Fold this protein.
Amino acid sequence: MAIRPWNWKGFLELFIILYFAYLLAAAAQYNDYPSALQFASWTTYDVSAFKTTQNSRVNMRIILLKVTNPSSKIGFAFGFVSNGSIASNFLGAASVRLKSSYYVGGQSYWSDVEVFWLANRNKPVHENATLQLQKNGDLVLRDVDGTLAWSTNTSNMSVAGLQMLQTGNLVLYGDNNQTLWQSFDHPMDTLLPGQKLLAGQKLVSRASATNWSEGSFYLSVSSQGLFAFYRSTVPQMYFKFSVSGIKDSEQPSYIRAVDDGTLALYILSAEPSEPDAVLSRPVNYTEYAYMRLDSDGHLLFYYDSFADSMYRVDVLADLLRECDYPTVCGNYGLCSYGQCSCPYGFDQNNVSDKQSNFGCTEINPVTCENGQSQSLIPLKDVYYFNYVDPDVADLKGIHMESCRDACLRNCSCKVAMFRFYYNTSHGNCFLLSNVLSLTTEEQGRRQYNSYAFIKLPKEQESQILSSVSAPPTRAIAGVTVGTFLLVILVVAFCILCLRKKRNTDGDVEDYFDQLSGMPTRFSYQDLKLATEDFQRKLGAGGFGSVFEGTMVSGEKVAAKRLDALGQGKKEFLAEVKTIGSIHHVNLVRLVGFCAENLRRLLVYEFMCNGSLDKWIFNRIPQQPALDWQTRKTIILDIAKGLAYLHEECRQRIVHLDIKPQNILLDENLRAKISDFGLSKLIDKDQSQVVTTMRGTPGYLAPELSSSIVTEKADVYSFGIVVMEVVCGRKNLDRSQSEG
């Protein structure tokens, strides 16, 4: 019998057909099904029949799925989720990713599941609970015994169906596809790109990474700014980002997580206008996933690193240090540069390897019954996170001893915190009954001082004082020798520091002493009294905040307090030297300045009508519009001021930051140029100088990109300002059409 030859061509065709059939079958496993119509019903048991997801931490059974990136197999899912316990089920939404290695037995397993919203966060249901989109339009979750666990409360609203959108927003939509209810209006602890947190809403952290119920922190928005609190009977603020000014939008204030990985604050304004402020951190990842308030109070951006874990960036890292968080060291814990310890009279809690929580417990707890035998142990230079909100002080403007006595008389007071500026006869008193973390790393960061007084039994006070003041006898000899060596080292160190101080820190003092014709130099205490402890804030700029004040002579002034991390010594010297030596009717007069250690302030004449931008961009309804004659006068005033700077001074002065925000108006709406922090001096025999690129985007002359500076840079900026004054709109205004 003849052997038939092998049909290689037929075999290859069959192999190709089977291979592509396999690919199509695999691809079908993650095709999305984002919608459901009325009268649909699901139970936790039934859902697992048509789609299951799992990873090491989270199990999810999907009801709706929207694949947002088919190539990366990434999507948003809605369904029943659990966190290791089948007895505790939640209805929620999550971002999911399918990994090919999890394609098992014809079923796709979504290996990465990140829950960002839960309907029944604080009320989990058991197995066989039921979700139903009812005929009346209400989406209802009932436990296995029929108990109502959660509802959208959308009865009689003509709901047509339920849908998971491309953005991760779960919506109930009507017959005309209008949104009747959406999960974005009920945030948990996470904001997705494009999602808003409105005034009146909260982001509430999780209790822990494995416990999704409400935790200890929340983030909220108001017409004054963005705030973060520790949740307690009386919420305690630990972060604030204030935005001052006149609200020019009827919409409620809000923040929005932008898809470029920034947090935009719309406190006074609203889209499509520019945000009032933007919080961001530089990263190398472009795949922004979400922003979450974590269980430790940190506000984090999560970026997809396309690996097994997310890349995290702390949004507030430039504004809060590790020790500024309320629970960083647990109850009574002392935080110093990220390290935790316990004060005298306290022991560290027993902490296992699986726990990260620190904390301190009283060796001998105080009770109300032994009130007569209690004392307060003072701790100098110890601060409390709640100082960020001075309005919550229990007693204001009192003596330190009165603060101590108030705590001793108050049974619930465990610690008295006393915050003051220069002497202990006048300060604010905080009586703490729930004591969280304390910090000792504030030296040099704040402009005030602080004491903590910890309540302990009297017999323990003597033990603490003796342990501190009476070293063991055997150690006396060693201490004596060590002290002698230490004295030698200290003397040598002081000599080196004095030499360095003469050459560095003393430069500023020497510089001001050598200048002639300088404005008045004020002490910090003078300006603190003039501004009533910096209470009347006029606004904030790139380098600091401006406060209204009245000098002892009765002259009204505007004190610009420079931030320690903003305008540096170089810019401060430039502004004092420049504006302190010139005088012109169209330049804001520098009344004086303050330079004490890190405290730097500039004192200007008070301009009652504020900056020009508030008159041409953000005009309030009751404020009259500028007529054409006034606009012409303002433009001429700016031109005269620039002409003086460029042509009539001993050295030509290039301002480099001409914009409406730096043009101030007096009581007669006459314009004056202000803010010389970026200015540059050019000798008469020079045509140009070289400097780093500086200024405000939108007002920068093109030639500044080459770092070549001439007075023409100001002329270019002036031209932009003229157009804005005439047109009444910003040079970059997204609220206007391009036509």
